[in-house]
Design a protein that fits this description.
Elements (H helix, E strand, L loop, with lengths): L1 E3 L6 E8 L2 E14 L7 E11 L5 E12 L1 E4 L11 E4 L10 E2 L16 E4 L3 E7 L2 H9 L11 H11 L3 H8 L5
Parallel strand pairs: 6-8
Antiparallel strand pairs: 1-3, 2-3, 3-4, 4-5, 5-10, 6-9, 7-9
Helix pairs in contact: 1-3, 2-3
């Protein structure tokens, strides 16, 4: 787990994505974490931003998550990976040099494919949530498939730890006792 700690910078406009749509706001990056590993073809990047008004007054928070994937699948439909990936040619710009073949449908390695051969590349999944309160930030980080209700993933916990060191409102919300 890498925790990137930078000094918050206010910018005139910050742009992130929600699905395919760009989302823009005035604000700065509070915290950024990733669980990328050198051997893993999929990982999660989490970002927490704070909006600022024209006069510099802090406002809402933006939680931006990016599910990143380097996995590609066979071009033809297969029973194992039928709905995964977007069809592209193996030589397309969207195919990273370090793309990895799916372990289930087992497409040919990129080195054996021609530039016009079709594969299905998994795409990165962007989600953005605008949260008015720090409590909403925590709830947005708890929301997600495969997570037990009320649980925070490891990356979400680390994002809150970094943000709490920079934002007193996040610190207060993140350290408030919760009754189970």
């Amino acid at each position: 787990m890498t925790i990137r700690q930078e000094t918050p910078k206010a910018g005139p406009v910050t742009a992130v994505k929600d699905g395919l749509a760009p989302v823009t706001f005035n604000g700065y990056l509070l915290a950024e974490v990733t669980n990328e590993r050198p051997t893993g073809p999929r990982w999660l990047d989490l970002y927490l931003y704070r909006e600022v008004d024209d006069d510099g007054t802090p406002g809402a928070y933006i939680v931006h998550s990016v599910g990143v994937s380097l996995v590609y699948h066979r071009g033809a439909d297969t029973n194992t990976c039928r709905a995964k990936g977007v069809p592209v040619t193996a030589g397309a710009e969207e195919v990273p040099e370090d793309a990895e073949p799916c372990r289930d449908c087992r497409p040919a390695p990129l080195s054996r494919l021609g530039p016009e051969d079709v594969i299905r590349m998994e795409s990165n999944r962007h989600t953005a949530h605008r949260c008015i309160t720090p409590g909403e930030v925590i709830e947005a980080l708890r929301d997600g498939p495969g997570r037990a209700p009320g649980r925070l993933s490891g990356p979400a916990q680390r994002l809150l730890q970094v943000a709490a060191s920079r934002d007193p409102e996040i610190r207060e919300a993140a350290t408030t006792p919760v009754r189970l």
